[in-house]
């Protein structure tokens, strides 16, 4: 059965982000409720509109000097402004990429290249041998990052091109501690990369504090002839759900991922003072686009869509956040009411901020592995963790285990992530669905 | 004024690839005629349709097991089949990328990584030192490649990570000679990369041997065959094989492209040159079995880890549809473009006589059916100036990504032996699937008035 899913558009195509605006067309049993917005989001109607218009009217090569090309260039410039505005950055500090994976890989690639350039330059001066002579570049991160950070770092370690410290998150609050990050920094450290919000638990990481402390440390390092440590945050899960401002975060790089905030499947990378303060070494070489930082004929429709999605976030993020939080809190109330002591809310850590839309929970019981429960659901569409791990079978989420969730609970974990249009009525349907799923599983002898 | 340009859709949105199907809505003077299809093409209506449907109905994460994700996965699989069919390859040998730039960079990255792996593996065995011990990997290419081949190679040279030989094209036929390519191969050579068709001159680094059997066999298929023969000898001598790549960006959708005939190990696909979207693909012969591919990106496992990142379903749907159209209609496209381009060249000759030089016509050389690179002789007729005086024609001097190169004549043309004065005056016209003879007439008149204005100025 087709997903009734996102409420951003009902069967008549009406833009509908308000509860109740969707006519109930199908009987409850065949109705699907999508609660996997952290995996991906639908496109807002305005985003589809912007993309379709660009496809039809701005198809010229943006490097071409005649009107069809100029129109495309204007759209790209406007989108860049909107991206920048969404995160409190300057347009000239934004480059477009093919997505979060590329943006994250690009940051890691760049800092390693930069380390070699700096190291080589200093080391060549007989009078001033490099303080990190003979060292590999070192990167500090945490144990719950997305694969597009974790795997390129692991690859660098395998290839013996860099060293990496994966700082464990606290089992008390699910966050990485700024103290532990700073303690891991060494002379040869060139980058600290910490996600802004975790996709599985929703936990918000203390990025502003980490940035502040790295900045202070950098002053000392400069005095001692050591290169500064750069700070990156993968903001994929936070954008569109809570306010994200690079001035408050204090980061040098920030990854933007369109398909998490009702935008298309491309991304962007913010680089503080791109080309002036913060170097960026491109991975790709070609026709000069994006000031040679990311060449390739620009994907105007995608960029138009990303810009529109960013515009909507800049305008409405507070409202989105308020709505998601209200619905998610209601969801957790209903889960508690339905399952009582049996339910454990894995994403609630005392004193820790978390995304407004995410509820990671486990219902205790030997037959209630998350995968089995979801398989018995007839309405709910959700996941156990990251979508790209959907083929991990029965293995409990490494992220949850890292956060100190006991194995039995981790096995039973289900991640629900609500969206801009999720309603309380849908929450009720989901809770009933979970109830029948549990009953069926436990009814089986 | 908006480009009247592509005839794939008229003002009423009717799909219209046939001449005459567009109502003449604007007076001739404000009418624009787009003849820059080598720079980029509009999206076919069916492509827009496929993309819009995917945006609305297949937005789920393709890695998710429920129906919204499955639907997206099906679309991706179908698109992959269509891509493969377009080039005579197997679906499992196709990976989707963000475009031609990425595909080209990925090939170069991969062969260098592979060289180091092979070299290191062999070199570590005390009994059998590597025959290329201490050598950098070496790549052979030609002097008229697109920036997305040339610049990554130049970068490797700057960084002293690889050595590259840029084999000059012949000043007689504008092609690179297979002989010269093979002569440049050394023990440490790991890749030969030669574009299938040049974007500025339209020259094909290939001849359809079925129709021209009496002429010597020419580049890409010949290069592949000879490299394959060489590889057998190299294997006997303990040397790694040389892989062959072709950037097929300009050829796809304009003439038949079949990897079995080309004999290549890698082939780059670029959507926005065949009325598809701005993404691409990379064909890898026997991906993961015969031909290794070392990814540039690491992440969530998509594309079998060769190119991770949540798949851009609408873009992939569009690319698949564009490929389907090419597989079905390429011959018709080719015939139409060739007829219109040949008519254009007739009219240019009729209008400008001896003054016009057709830069893309090299004796005995096959060229793209849609490209006409020409110069009108005269001291005041630099290509840039002529185009600036045109009121109807939208065209370029060469590669779109070089549109900011001012008065510098095209390096590609100079490489092909076009004299400096002519190269300065060069204009590249590239017609499309819907370009009409009537539009050709308008363009020739436009060029005539542009030249007259430039020469009327004292």
UniProtKB/TrEMBL annotation, chain A:
- Gene3D superfamilies per the record? 1.10.260.50, Aspartate Aminotransferase, domain 1 (3.90.1150.10), Type I PLP-dependent aspartate aminotransferase-like (Major domain) (3.40.640.10)
List, separated by semicolons, the cofactors it needs: pyridoxal 5'-phosphate
Keywords in UniProt for this one? Cytoplasm, Lyase, Pyridoxal phosphate, Transferase
User: Which GO MF term does the entry hold, naming one?
Assistant: selenocysteine lyase activity
Main location as per UniProt: cytoplasm
- Gene Ontology cellular-component terms listed: cytosol
Basic and acidic residues bias: start-end ranges: 22-33
User: Do you know which InterPro entries this protein is assigned to?
Assistant: Aminotrans_V_dom (IPR000192), Cysteine_dSase (IPR016454), PyrdxlP-dep_Trfase (IPR015424), PyrdxlP-dep_Trfase_major (IPR015421), PyrdxlP-dep_Trfase_small (IPR015422)
EC number from the UniProt entry: 4.4.1.16
Positions of the Aminotransferase class V domain: 33-429
Where is this protein found?
Cytoplasm, Cytosol
Quaternary organization: Homodimer.
Record's protein name: Selenocysteine lyase
TrEMBL record, chain B:
Kindly give the Pfam families that the UniProt entry links to this protein: Aminotran_5 (PF00266)
Q: What is its EC number?
A: 4.4.1.16
Ranges for region Disordered: 1-33
What's the domain of life for this entry? Eukaryota
Family statement: Belongs to the class-V pyridoxal-phosphate-dependent aminotransferase family.
Q: Which keywords does this chain's UniProt record carry?
A: Cytoplasm, Lyase, Pyridoxal phosphate, Transferase
**Chief site of localization:** cytoplasm
Q: Which cofactor does it need?
A: pyridoxal 5'-phosphate
* Protein name, as recorded: Selenocysteine lyase
Where does this protein reside within or beyond the cell? Cytoplasm, Cytosol
Q: Kindly indicate whether the keyword Protein biosynthesis belongs to this entry.
A: no
| Residue ranges of every copy of the Aminotransferase class V domain listed in the record | 33-212, 241-442
Q: Where is the composition biased (Basic and acidic residues)?
A: 22-33
Gene Ontology terms, MF aspect: selenocysteine lyase activity; transferase activity
Quaternary structure and partners? Homodimer.
Per the entry, what this protein does is:
Catalyzes the decomposition of L-selenocysteine to L-alanine and elemental selenium.
Show the GO cellular component annotation of the record: cytosol
Q: Identify the InterPro entries for this entry.
A: Aminotrans_V_dom, Cysteine_dSase, PyrdxlP-dep_Trfase, PyrdxlP-dep_Trfase_major, PyrdxlP-dep_Trfase_small
The record lists the organism as Neophocaena asiaeorientalis asiaeorientalis (Yangtze finless porpoise)
């Amino acid at each position: 059965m087709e997903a009734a899913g996102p409420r951003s558009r009902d069967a008549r195509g009406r833009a509908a982000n308000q509860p109740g605006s969707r006519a109930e067309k199908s009987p409850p049993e065949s109705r699907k409720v999508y609660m996997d917005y952290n995996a991906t989001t639908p496109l807002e109607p305005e985003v589809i509109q912007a993309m379709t218009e660009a496809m039809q009217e701005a198809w010229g090569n943006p490097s071409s000097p005649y009107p069809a090309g100029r129109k495309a260039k204007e759209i790209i410039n406007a989108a860049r402004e909107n991206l920048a505005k969404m995160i409190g950055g300057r347009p000239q500090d934004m480059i477009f990429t093919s997505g979060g994976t590329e943006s994250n890989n690009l940051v890691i690639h760049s800092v390693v290249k930069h380390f070699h350039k700096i190291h080589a330059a200093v080391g060549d001066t007989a009078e001033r041998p490099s303080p990190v002579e003979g060292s590999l570049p070192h990167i500090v991160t945490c144990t719950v990052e997305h694969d597009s950070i974790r795997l390129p770092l692991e690859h660098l370690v395998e290839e013996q091109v860099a060293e990496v410290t994966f700082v464990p998150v606290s089992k008390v609050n699910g966050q990485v501690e700024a103290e532990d990050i700073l303690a891991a920094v060494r002379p040869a450290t060139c980058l600290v990369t910490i996600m802004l919000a975790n996709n599985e638990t929703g936990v918000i990481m203390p990025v502003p504090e980490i940035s502040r402390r790295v900045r202070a440390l950098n002053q000392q390092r400069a005095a001692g002839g050591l290169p500064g440590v750069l700070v990156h945050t993968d903001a994929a899960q936070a954008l569109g759900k809570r306010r994200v401002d690079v001035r408050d975060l204090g980061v040098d790089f920030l990854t933007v991922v369109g398909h998490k905030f009702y935008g298309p499947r491309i991304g962007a990378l913010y680089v503080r003072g791109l080309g002036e303060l913060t170097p960026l070494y491109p991975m790709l070489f070609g026709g000069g686009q994006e000031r040679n930082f990311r060449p390739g004929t620009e994907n105007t429709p995608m960029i138009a869509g990303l810009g529109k999605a960013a515009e909507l976030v800049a305008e409405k993020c507070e409202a989105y956040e308020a709505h998601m939080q209200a619905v998610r809190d209601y969801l957790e109330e209903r889960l508690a009411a339905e399952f009582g002591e049996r339910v454990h809310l894995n994403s609630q850590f005392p004193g820790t901020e978390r995304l407004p839309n995410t509820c990671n929970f486990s219902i205790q019981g030997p037959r209630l592995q998350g995968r089995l429960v979801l398989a018995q659901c007839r309405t709910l569409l959700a996941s156990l963790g990251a979508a790209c791990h959907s083929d991990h079978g029965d293995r409990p989420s490494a992220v949850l285990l890292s956060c100190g969730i006991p194995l039995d609970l981790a096995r039973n974990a289900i991640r629900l992530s609500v969206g801009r249009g999720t309603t309380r009525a849908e929450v009720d349907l989901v809770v009933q669905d979970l109830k029948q799923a549990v009953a069926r599983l436990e009814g089986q002898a």
